[in-house]
Amino acid sequence: MSLTADDVRRLALLARLELTDEEVDAIGPQVTKILGFVEQLALLDTEDVEPMTTALDLDNRWRADELVPSLTNEQALQNAPAKDDSCFLVPPVLGTAASKSSH
């Protein structure tokens, strides 16, 4: 499988990358090799392979979940630029509930 320059540009657009023509020419063969390797992996029989979360044989070392002294609510909020009685106030990221319900 060989990618065209337009294919590389489409992939770059999907990845939100701005590439120069020189970068498209340089990256095209590299992406083609990567896709070839992925095709090889797709041919492997993984029917009897157990799913795993990591390739390393590690045991997590969890600390005990113990109650320790912490900040009071007032201390945590004392330097907040905007707050109400018990919470940080932040500007809406995706709009407000009122604007969503009007659609």
Automatic annotation (TrEMBL):
GO biological process per UniProt: glutaminyl-tRNAGln biosynthesis via transamidation; regulation of translational fidelity; translation
Molecular function in Gene Ontology: asparaginyl-tRNA synthase (glutamine-hydrolyzing) activity; ATP binding; glutaminyl-tRNA synthase (glutamine-hydrolyzing) activity; transferase activity
InterPro entries according to UniProt: Asp/Glu-ADT_sf_sub_c, GatC
Highest taxon in the source lineage: Bacteria
Swiss-Prot/TrEMBL catalytic activity: L-glutamyl-tRNA(Gln) + L-glutamine + ATP + H2O = L-glutaminyl-tRNA(Gln) + L-glutamate + ADP + phosphate + H(+); L-aspartyl-tRNA(Asn) + L-glutamine + ATP + H2O = L-asparaginyl-tRNA(Asn) + L-glutamate + ADP + phosphate + 2 H(+)
Coiled-coil segments: none
Pfam families associated with the record: GatC
Name of the top EC class for this enzyme: ligase
The enzyme's E.C. designation: 6.3.5.-
Record's keyword terms, sorted: ATP-binding, Ligase, Nucleotide-binding, Protein biosynthesis, Transferase
Family: Belongs to the GatC family.
UniProt subunit comment: Heterotrimer of A, B and C subunits.
Primary role: Allows the formation of correctly charged Asn-tRNA(Asn) or Gln-tRNA(Gln) through the transamidation of misacylated Asp-tRNA(Asn) or Glu-tRNA(Gln) in organisms which lack either or both of asparaginyl-tRNA or glutaminyl-tRNA synthetases. The reaction takes place in the presence of glutamine and ATP through an activated phospho-Asp-tRNA(Asn) or phospho-Glu-tRNA(Gln).
Protein's name according to its UniProt entry: Aspartyl/glutamyl-tRNA(Asn/Gln) amidotransferase subunit C
Encoding gene (name): gatC
